[in-house]
């Protein structure tokens, strides 16, 4: 209300008093009373808003416009009014104090003039005692039934929950379901209409219909209802908590036939009370509720759809399902917020509404004037709770808005160390906020964890900014996280991975928020640099490759702040940056430079751990870029350092990479034998949180390498077991980098070579899904290559082009390892589809790549495909010689699987030339070396051919895959 010079034109009458604002006149039985003009201005505001709380600031602005005055002036004038005005029937002042908020006029009032109608306000009629008519209850049938059952067991039941969760709705529904159990009925009392605790008994009496004829209202209630059986619903008790509790205790003790169900944002703490905590409505988690049927399985979505339909005939369909699910998720399943959001659909489309809600909760405004003022916006109902807090509780709530996710009491103490309160006081305030339903509490093995609902966090953050405390709060938050994550680095060295990630993974959002603030508005880049460095193990454990790289790059760009940090910080950041480049979409010279620089810094400060990490990372990079000879040399240097420092586990990491390079260089037999030994030495999964040290889990990475080499070596049983262990363990770890590596490096080629199309399809889908969850750019072209290979197997001619483009991308990215074998697969596929020119070009490129990179493991396959082309050209003699060379090359390297494929192709060729005996003699001993552990297209084909040859028939002109 703003003060103006316009005439009010009204007369306000209460008891024997008459107030005419236009004449600044207050009379008692026509006798003028001497009250100051400021006091009369205050009275004007209060009677104009009879029954409503008028804030202190509003009263001051009206009575002292354009003037700054202390709040004590307001108190003095309110006191003068109280001395001059009558008492109500229950002996209380006409002006009630609403603690922490303002004042309310509570006397019966008649208003004349103005619009020429007689108006009135009577607080005794604010609660009629009848149950309010509420919309149909949605998604709470089980809750209502449980409350009704509890009313049989408990005389005093309190429904407790956060603002807008639907406490009144379920309490009224439960009361209605029990109407036939109480012969004297149900009485509903809305305590939100009063602000003074001293009015609770009078309001209850008025609702019960016994008025103010009793000198002692509470005694009057007991006397009037001594023999009654009835249910009393006390709604909205939080602002008159202690009084409501005392009255409820007294009435249930004095009236054996009385049951009470109360609603409050915190328990009454009565001796006889049973508390039911009402949770928000269940809503779809992220990546669920993607269609109409799935979304409607959640009560939050059901409520939204029903209210939207009632408001505007809204029709819910599959297209809107993920949007509506996201709206309900954003609103944390709070019933009031969902109803307010649904009421906006006549004006806004769901997608537009979601976009607005992502930035602010302001769109949540009631469209109906019948909605109580405190429920007309979501922020209004939060403000109702906020105004009831003590000064310390309000400040702590504002401070807690800095947390993005859940937090513990120790987190609160760590962030609140600057507010000048003891640990005990902070813990008590935190528990109090949880009791008042402003914090959601959950319990785990480590004790209670709290979180703010998004709407509450948004409200509290706005109040934090308005208070001028935001900078200190966010600085304290960032410094606390810095201490925490520097501690986490030490714990990572010894703590089991599951425990370590459980402690620190929930803090990723807080970490992101703090880092952004330190480098942005907070202007504390040194804290940001140190925080980014300390967070590297967490990012690596969670496979947050892209986020880690972005934050690390940001820290490295803060050169001045970086110069003030310890040398180890810079070393860790550069090593992490290099690690990120190893997973990027381009493996250029920058990655070599980064690994070399990080290694130099590690040597300068004599940090053996990072000397090992950087040598290992450089070896991986060299192998990825087709420099296998250099990789072997780098990993031999790694082995010497690890052996000298007695780093047994690190030795295994380096040996695995070195043996993989040996495999690529063509010594399949030695790589296979040594990897079997390595797997035996590390037969159990690591319990320590060691994934982040060398980018992947050791148990998984050893078995990925073993699976690939064992398959090529013809040991299908070992390959199958190793691959199964790698996939299962990487999934159990929930480490996406390890799982993606297992899929791309072993699972996909093995499924492709074994002819298990459906399994290959599942692996491609799993890798594609991983790449949407984590930005591991290095594997995208590999995934596309196998997508194209599968499409070709399904008869899609475009599959070959997909494979070709994927290989071109690998070459562009400088991710050259295995490119020769990919080119050979492309050539064979193109050949099967009659694209002879592409087959020749691809095979020529494969030989060139294999020679330049020294990837001799692929030579038997390249020779086999060359023999197939020679056969197609009619050069049967040349084809025979080439295929024989392919089989011999495979035998020399120990690549039994490739030998089988080359020998099968040669046996087919000889069979066509009626050399059945020679073909059988060639194929028979090789087939005998394969067991029947796992079905394999190539083994089946070779044995079928051998059977045909044994019958003296020619046949089987199909080519190998």
Describe this structure in words.
The protein is an alpha+beta fold and 961 residues long. Among the domains are: 10-121, Winged helix-like DNA-binding domain superfamily/Winged helix DNA-binding domain (Arc Repressor Mutant, subunit A, Orthogonal Bundle); 141-277, P-loop containing nucleotide triphosphate hydrolases (Rossmann fold, 3-Layer(aba) Sandwich); 292-377; 389-468, Winged helix-like DNA-binding domain superfamily/Winged helix DNA-binding domain (Arc Repressor Mutant, subunit A), CATH 1.10.10.10; 855-961, Tetratricopeptide repeat domain (Serine Threonine Protein Phosphatase 5, Tetratricopeptide repeat, Alpha Horseshoe), CATH 1.25.40. 59% of the residues lie in helices and 8% in strands. The protein is built from 44 helices and 17 strands. The chain has a 6-stranded antiparallel β-sheet with strand order 4-3-2-1-8-9, with helices on one face. A hairpin with a 4-residue loop joins strand 2 and strand 3 (25-28). Helix 1 crosses helix 2, helix 6 (200-208) packs parallel to helix 7 (217-224) and helix 39 runs antiparallel to helix 40 (859-872). The longest helix has 23 residues, at 470-492. The N and C termini lie far apart (83 Å). The model is unreliable at 1-6, 115-119 and 954-961 (pLDDT under 50).
């Amino acid at each position: 209300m703003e003060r103006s010079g316009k005439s009010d034109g009204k007369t306000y009458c209460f008891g024997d008093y008459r107030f005419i604002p236009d004449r600044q006149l207050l009379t008692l039985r026509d006798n003028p009373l001497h009250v100051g003009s400021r006091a009369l201005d205050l009275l004007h505001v209060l009677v104009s808003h009879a029954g409503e709380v008028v804030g202190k600031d509003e009263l001051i602005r009206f009575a002292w416009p354009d003037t700054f005055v202390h709040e004590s002036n307001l108190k003095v004038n309110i006191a003068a009014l109280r001395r001059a005005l009558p008492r109500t029937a229950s002996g209380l002042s006409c002006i009630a104090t609403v603690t922490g908020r303002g004042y309310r006029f509570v006397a019966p009032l008649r208003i004349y003039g103005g619009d020429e109608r007689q108006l009135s306000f009577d607080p005794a009629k604010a609660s009629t005692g009848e149950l309010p008519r509420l919309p149909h209850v949605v998604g709470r049938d089980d809750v209502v039934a449980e409350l009704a059952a509890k009313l049989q067991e408990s005389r005093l039941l309190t429904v407790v929950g956060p603002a807008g969760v639907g406490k009144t709705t379920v309490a009224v529904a439960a009361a209605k379901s029990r109407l036939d159990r109480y012969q004297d009925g149900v009485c509903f009392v809305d305590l939100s209409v009063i602000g003074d605790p001293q009015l609770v008994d009078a309001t209850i009496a008025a609702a019960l219909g016994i008025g103010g004829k009793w000198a002692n209202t509470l005694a009057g209630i007991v006397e009037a209802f001594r023999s009654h059986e009835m249910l009393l619903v006390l709604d909205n008790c939080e602002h008159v908590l202690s009084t409501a509790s005392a009255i409820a205790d007294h009435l249930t003790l004095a009236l054996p036939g009385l049951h009470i169900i109360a609603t409050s944002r915190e328990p009454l703490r009565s001796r006889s009370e049973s508390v039911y905590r009402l949770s928000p409505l269940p809503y779809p988690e992220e990546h669920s509720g993607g269609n109409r049927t799935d979304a409607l399985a959640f009560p939050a979505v059901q409520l939204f759809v029903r209210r939207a339909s009632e408001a505007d005939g809204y029709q819910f369909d599959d297209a809107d399902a993920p949007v509506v699910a996201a709206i309900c998720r954003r609103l944390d399943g709070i019933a009031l917020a969902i109803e307010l959001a649904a009421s906006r659909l006549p004006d806004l489309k769901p997608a537009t509404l979601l976009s607005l809600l992502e930035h602010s909760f302001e769109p949540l405004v009631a469209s109906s004037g019948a909605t109580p003022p405190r429920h007309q916006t979501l922020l209004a109902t939060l403000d109702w709770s906020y105004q009831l807090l003590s000064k310390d509780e309000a400040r702590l709530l504002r401070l807690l808005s800095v947390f993005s996710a859940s937090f513990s009491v120790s987190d609160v103490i760590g962030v609140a160390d600057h507010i000048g309160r003891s640990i005990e006081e902070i813990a008590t305030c935190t528990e109090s906020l949880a009791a008042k339903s402003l914090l959601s509490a959950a319990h785990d093995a480590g004790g209670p964890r709290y979180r703010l609902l998004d709407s509450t966090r948004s409200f509290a953050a706005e109040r934090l900014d308005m208070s001028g405390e935001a900078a200190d709060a966010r600085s304290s938050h960032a410094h606390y996280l810095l201490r925490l994550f520097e501690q986490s680095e030490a714990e990572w060295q010894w703590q089991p991975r599951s425990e370590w990630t459980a402690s620190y993974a929930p803090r990723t959002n807080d970490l992101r928020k703090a880092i952004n603030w330190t480098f942005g508005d907070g202007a504390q880049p040194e804290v940001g640099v140190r925080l980014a460095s300390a967070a590297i193990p967490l990012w690596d454990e969670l496979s947050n490759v892209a986020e880690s790289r972005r934050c690390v790059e940001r820290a490295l760009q803060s050169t001045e702040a970086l110069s003030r940090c310890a040398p180890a910080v810079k070393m860790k950041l550069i090593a992490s940056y290099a690690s990120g480049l190893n997973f990027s979409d381009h493996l250029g010279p920058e990655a070599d430079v980064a690994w070399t620089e990080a290694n130099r810094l590690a040597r300068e400060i004599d940090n053996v751990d990072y000397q090992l990490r950087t040598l290992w990372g450089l070896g991986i990079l060299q192998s990825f870029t087709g420099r296998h000879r250099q990789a072997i040399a780098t990993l031999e240097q790694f082995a010497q350092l690890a052996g000298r420092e007695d780093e047994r586990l690190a030795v295994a990491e380096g040996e695995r990479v070195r043996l993989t390079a040996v495999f690529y260089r063509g010594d399949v037999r030695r790589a296979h034998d040594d990897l079997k030994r390595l797997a035996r030495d590390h037969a159990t999964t690591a319990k320590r949180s060691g994934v982040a040290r060398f980018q992947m889990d050791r148990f998984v990475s050893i078995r990925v390498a073993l699976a690939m080499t064992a398959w090529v070596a013809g040991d299908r049983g070992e390959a199958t077991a190793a691959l199964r262990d790698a996939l299962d363990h990487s999934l159990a770890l929930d480490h996406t980098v390890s799982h993606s590596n297992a899929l791309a490096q072993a699972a996909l080629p093995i499924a492709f070579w074994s002819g298990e199309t459906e399994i290959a399809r599942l692996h491609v889908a799993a890798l594609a899904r991983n790449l949407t969850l984590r930005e591991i750019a290095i594997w995208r072209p590999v995934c596309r290559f196998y997508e194209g290979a599968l499409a070709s197997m399904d008869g899609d001619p475009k599959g070959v082009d997909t494979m070709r483009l994927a290989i071109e991308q690998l070459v562009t990215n400088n991710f050259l390892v295995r490119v020769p074998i990919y080119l050979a697969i492309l050539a064979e596929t193109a050949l099967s589809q009659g694209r002879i020119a592409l087959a020749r070009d691809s095979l020529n490129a494969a030989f060139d790549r294999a020679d330049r990179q020294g990837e001799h493991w692929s030579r038997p396959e390249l020779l086999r495909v060359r023999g197939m082309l020679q056969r197609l050209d009619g050069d049967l003699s040349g084809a025979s010689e080439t295929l024989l060379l392919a089989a011999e090359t495979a035998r020399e390297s120990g690549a039994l699987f490739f030998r089988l494929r080359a020998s099968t192709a040669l046996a087919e060729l000889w069979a066509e030339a009626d050399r059945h005996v020679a073909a059988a003699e060639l194929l028979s001993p090789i087939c005998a070396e394969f067991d029947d552990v796992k079905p394999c297209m190539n083994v089946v084909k070779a044995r079928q051919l051998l059977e045909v040859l044994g019958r003296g028939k020619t046949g089987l002109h199909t080519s190998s895959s």
